[in-house]
Each structure stands twice: as C-alpha cells, then as structure tokens.
Prior knowledge:
Elements: E1 5-6, E2 15-21, H1 26-33, E3 41-47, E4 54-58, E5 61-65, H2 67-70, E6 73-77
Antiparallel strand pairs: 1-6, 2-3, 2-6, 3-4, 4-5
Amino acid sequence: xxxxxxxxxxxxxxxxxxxxxxxxxxxxxxxxxxxxxxxxxxxxxxxxxxxxxxxxxxxxxxxxxxxxxxxxxxxxxxxxxxxxxxxxxxxxxxxxxxx
Length: 99
C-alpha cells in the first residue's frame, strides 16, 4: 500500500486515518458533518457484492458511502496493531418473551 490513498481503495478489514477530503461542495461538507475529518480513524467493514456501496466504521457508528463519495477521502493506512478503538457492533437481543 502506498503512503496516501483514497478510502475507496482500502480493502475490507483495514484501518486508516483521514488525511483530508477533496473538494469544496455540498458533498464534501456533508462528509465533514458525518465525522469524516482529518485525523479520524476509519475501519472498512464490508462492501456490497459489486463493490459499491461500502460500510465504514468511525466515531462509534457505521456509515455507508458510495464509491464516488469515498473516493474524495484521502487516507493513510494504520499499522495492523495501531487501531486503538474497539469495534462497535450492534447486537440483537434474543427475544425472552418479556416486554
């Protein structure tokens, strides 16, 4: 992997941190509003069967982005042991019959 890539190029299961977002338009501002800012750590969770869209995890929640949106996000890979935040996974509770 090179030093700087875009988020759409990162394989499933990898952790990266954001270097910046390219552009100055409503989509770029929306990505910022969703928490994609310089220094934020992101994990690639899964991709749709045809590769678009992709689910990412950041700031304690999961976000689904189209390839055109994730291609705007410049990232740098983290070392395999460098990810510090635990993975957040929504768990479904087994139905116990109690309301």
